[in-house]
Amino acid sequence: xxxxxxxxxxxxxxxxxxxxxxxxxxxxxxxxxxxxxxxxxxxxxxxxxxxxxxxxxxxxxxxxxxxxxxxxxxxxxxxxxxxxxxxxxxxxxxxxxxxxxxxxxxxxxxxxxxxxxxxxxxxxxxxxxxxxxxxxxxxxxxxxxxxxxxxxxxxxxxxxxxxxxxxxxxxxxxxxxxxxxxxxxxxxxxxxxxxxxxxxxxxxxxxxxxxxxxxxxxxxxxxxxxxxxxxxxxxxxxxxxxxxxxxxxxxxxxxxxxxxxxxxxxxxxxxxxxxxxxxxxxxxxxxxxxxxxxxxxxxxxxxxxxxxxxxxxxxxxxxxxxxxxxxxxxxxxxxxxxxxxxxxxxxxxxxxxxxxxxxxxxxxxxxxxxxxxxxxxxxxxxxxxxxxxxxxxxxxxxxxxxxxxxxxxxxxxx
Length: 414
What we know:
Elements: H1 3-14, H2 20-28, H3 34-47, H4 58-64, H5 72-81, E1 87-88, H6 95-103, H7 109-122, E2 125-128, E3 131-134, H8 137-162, H9 165-177, H10 182-187, H11 201-207, H12 213-219, H13 221-231, H14 236-241, H15 246-258, H16 263-275, H17 285-291, H18 304-317, H19 321-335, H20 362-382, H21 386-413
Antiparallel strand pairs: 1-3, 2-3
Helix pairs in contact: 1-2, 2-3, 5-7, 5-8, 8-9, 9-12, 12-13, 12-15, 13-15, 15-16, 16-17, 17-19, 18-20, 19-20, 19-21, 20-21
C-alpha cells in the first residue's frame, strides 16, 4: 500500500490523536505493510519513542513482513550493505563495494560476492543499475541498526573515509533514517574534527562536504549546530562569496532550527547568512529566517513566546541598518493575515520532530500579533533611520488595509 493511503488509514481509523509526524514515520517506513505501520505507531505511542531504529525489531521482519532474515555470512553481508542506502557495486562505482568487503573482516571478497549473489536471488538485495541495495527498507533499517550498535566507531573511523563521496552520502543518509540513534549519534561526532571539512567556511567550500550536513543535522544535531556556528564565524564578505555550500548550509539549518532546543542558536546563524545574502530564492537565508516568525505556521517548533522574545530583543539592541530591515520583515510576517508553510525542517528522516510551534488559541494569536505590531510601531516611531521608519510605517498601513479588506463585509454588517 502507498504511504499516502497508509497515512490516511492510521490517522482517520486508528490513531486520531497521534501527531502527523508520528503517522508519517510509521507509514513511510513500513514497506507498504498496514500491520507494520500499525505496530510502529502503537509502539511510538506506548513507549514515547521518537527514533525509528529503536522501534524496528527482528520479529517485525519475520512475523509481520514474513521475511526470511539471512543467517551466517549472508546476514553479515546484508547488514553491511544496509549501512548504505545503495552501494556502488560495478565498474567505476565499485569503490564502495570494495570498501565494504575490506570492512567485512574475515569474510573473503569471493565469499562476500557469493553472498550478494545469493541475497539478490532471494530478493533481499535489489539491483539498481550498477548499484545494490537491501530491500525492503524496514529490513535495511533493522540490519543497519545492528551494525551501528556493534561497530559504530569503526564505521566512522575506518569505513566512512574509504567510501566515495557518493558512498559517504549514502551511509549518512541511512544513518539519518535511523533517527537520533545513540550509537550513530555519538560516533558521528568524530566527523567534526578541529581541522576537518567543517572547521571553517573556506574548508567547506574547498572539500564540497556540505552535502552530508542535512543528514548529520538529524543524526547528531548538537555537534552539527556547533559546526554551523563555527562555519559562519567568518567575515560577511567570505560568507557571501561561499556559493558552493550555501544551499547545504541552509538545508542543515532548516533541520536544526526546527528543534526548540536549538532555535536561538540556529536563528542567529541564519541571521548571519541573511546579512551576507547571496541568493534570490524564496527559501534563501533571508526567506527561512523571516519564516520563523509566522504566527500560525512558523518554520520551527519553537513556541510563539520564544520567537517573540527573540525578535523583540533583537529589535531593541541593534542599530544596524540591514539587521533592522530584517527585523522589520520578520515583524511584518508575524502580523500577516495570510500565511504559507513550505519548510523542509520538520522532515527529519527517522526522527519524529516536535510539533510546529505556531499559536494554538485566539488569545495566543492576539498576544503574538500585538507584540509584533509593537515592534513595527517602535521601528516607525523611534528609529532615526528614515528608510526603516518609512518602511515600517508602510508595513503597518499594509497590514491595516489587509485586515480591513478581509473583514470589511463583516464590519459593514455590524
